[in-house]
Design a protein that fits this description.
Low-confidence stretches: 1-40, 344-351
Number of helices: 4
Radius of gyration: 25 Å
Shape: flat
Strand content: over 45%
Distance between the termini: 19 Å
Number of strands: 17
Oligomer: single chain
Length: about 350
């Protein structure tokens, strides 16, 4: 008899009280350490689970050695714009009915160049824990940028993870990556978390935190990166009133810079408690002749500077993970063949 171990996102909520280092596909494509894999939007192979093996031999339902029951079905559906979707769904329930889960995965294509892979997993248990994860990868033509040109070729990936428990603890991640054939790249990640009701976080940690990171390249040497993060706690480390803190910064180079500058950076950090808010703001102006102005100040007047320096003005003109790498890392997506719609008829089959 088969066995299957399912790790629910809600069972790992403890990690939601700690901030994770953010890294995009470009920063981890060559890394081999297993613990670093979840620091970027997952590939199709990473998202797949042992659930897909249930019924792969043609069975449509069964029971595992621990009493878990499962059901499998598959079909072909005609979607809008002539896309044909082939999908598989597996559902399961523990022997006592306290845990329910399902996983659905699919591939779709039209008669031309649209290709898509995707999956969604969800589950819940009798303790009030719920979770859902989804993933998709698409190759298509972006007609807003022309027809049959490098600029119109596009690959996009997205992933979303969410989990919560009955005590109010919650964890959410949302990843989006887009690559165009002319070198344009657009990536974004949003993460947030909160601990359960009436829980007191460890010193230095928060009751709630948010982190949003974006980066773009224009394909011509221009680059923009932004970061915005904040956190707060209801009770201070000393047992008194709560506090909040955060940081935001941005850098813009090439076409993203303004006022004729080669580049510009700016940022701010802050800490607020009982209405007493301390901030420190800073900025840099990089000019084409190599001059750099650096300036900043703190809200309490304890720090202030405004100086000019010489600098090479280096920035990341091109991403280390771009269009070519996106194609190379998507073999299953790129192998999907065009599919022609056969009228409006929908076909469904049991496996």
């Amino acid at each position: 008899p088969q066995t299957l171990n399912l790790d629910f996102q809600s069972q790992m909520q403890a990690k939601g009280t700690k901030e994770l280092a953010l890294a995009f596909e470009s920063q981890t494509a060559t890394q081999e350490k297993e613990e670093e894999v979840d620091q970027r939007a997952p590939t199709e192979a990473e998202f797949a689970t042992a659930v897909r093996e249930l019924g792969a031999d043609g069975e449509v339902h069964g029971e595992l050695s621990d009493g878990t029951r499962w059901w499998r079905e598959a079909g072909t559906s005609e979607l809008e714009n002539g896309r044909i979707c082939e999908w598989t769904l597996v559902r399961g329930q523990s022997a006592d009915g306290s845990v329910e889960w399902e996983e659905k995965w699919w591939s779709s294509a039209d008669a031309f160049d649209y290709k898509e892979l995707g999956a969604i997993k969800s589950g819940r248990d009798g303790h009030g824990n719920v979770w859902q994860e989804s993933w998709s990868e698409i190759s298509c033509s972006d007609v807003s940028r022309g027809f049959f040109t490098d600029a119109s070729k596009k690959i996009e990936r997205s992933a979303n993870k969410w989990g919560a428990d009955a005590n109010g603890a919650e964890w959410h991640e949302d990843w989006r990556e887009a690559y165009w054939g002319d070198g344009v790249v657009d990536r974004e990640c949003f993460k947030k978390s909160c601990i359960g009701k009436n829980k007191i976080p460890e010193d230095g940690h928060a009751s709630r935190w948010n982190h949003n990171w974006k980066e773009k390249w224009d394909g011509k040497g221009g680059c923009m990166k932004t970061n915005d993060s904040w956190a707060d706690r209801d009770i201070g480390e000393d047992g008194g009133s709560g506090r909040s803190w955060g940081e935001r910064w941005s850098e813009r180079w090439g076409s993203y810079a303004s006022h004729g500058r080669q580049g510009e950076r700016e940022g701010s950090t802050w800490n607020d408690r009982d209405g007493h808010k301390f901030t420190k703001d800073w900025g840099e102006e990089h000019w084409p002749d190599g001059r750099v102005r650096k300036y900043g100040h703190s809200s309490d007047g304890s720090d202030n500077w405004d100086v000019w320096e010489d600098s090479d003005g280096w920035w990341e003109r091109h991403p280390s993970f771009g269009w070519a790498e996106a194609v190379t890392h998507s073999p299953q997506l790129m192998s999907i063949k065009p599919r022609k719609a056969k009228g409006s008829e929908k076909k469904k089959k049991k496996m």
